Amino acid sequence: MERRDIQEIAAEIIDEFAFLDDWMDKYQHIIDLGKSLPPLDEAHKTDENIVRGCQSQVWLVPSLDGSQVVFHADSDAFITKGLIALLVRVFSGHTPEEVLNADLTFIDQIGIREHLSPTRSNGLNAMVKKMKMYALAYQAMNKS
């Protein structure tokens, strides 16, 4: 399989949302993305894997596969699980540098922030921040 860059994946997501007419359809698509996320092993649903700042519980488990960061995640809420599924799709399989330098304007382009409650929007920001922090840690490990 050919490796795609983050912007290609973001453009694909923008296209997916462009075909959806109203926000109920877009919310359903987000929920469906969450349902497609592979289940996270219960052993990983620990306090240390919780993303702080989210209204719902979100667990994020990073790993390094060669030079690429791989994320596994889960949430106890449908919309939140869909949001983390979007981020996993965008960030997983990329180098720490690519994750850190990712242009995430697609989030605004699909109009998601304006349709989230302030607490969910803060949670989305917390998820992005945590994923970038893991990427930064892996980048530091690679340099030492």
The largest pleated sheet is described as: 2 strands, antiparallel
What's the β-strand tally?
2
Q: What is the CATH first-level class name?
A: Alpha Beta
Report how far apart the termini are. 31 Å
Average pLDDT works out at 92
Helix percentage: 40-55%
Topology of helices and strands:
Elements (H helix, E strand, L loop, with lengths): L5 H13 L4 H13 L22 E8 L2 E8 L2 H14 L4 H5 L5 H4 L8 H26 L1
Antiparallel strand pairs: 1-2
Helix pairs in contact: 1-3, 2-3, 3-6
Give me some keywords for this one.
6 helices; mainly alpha; Sufe protein. Chain: A; 144 residues; 52% helix; two-stranded antiparallel ribbon
Note down, in words, how this protein is organized.
- This protein has a single domain, classed as Sufe protein. Chain: A.
- It is 52% helix and 11% strand.
- It is built from six helices and two strands; from the N terminus they run H-H-E-E-H-H-H-H.
- Strand 1 and strand 2 form a beta hairpin.
- Helix 2 crosses helix 3 and helix 3 packs parallel to helix 6.
- The radius of gyration is 15 Å and the shape is globular.
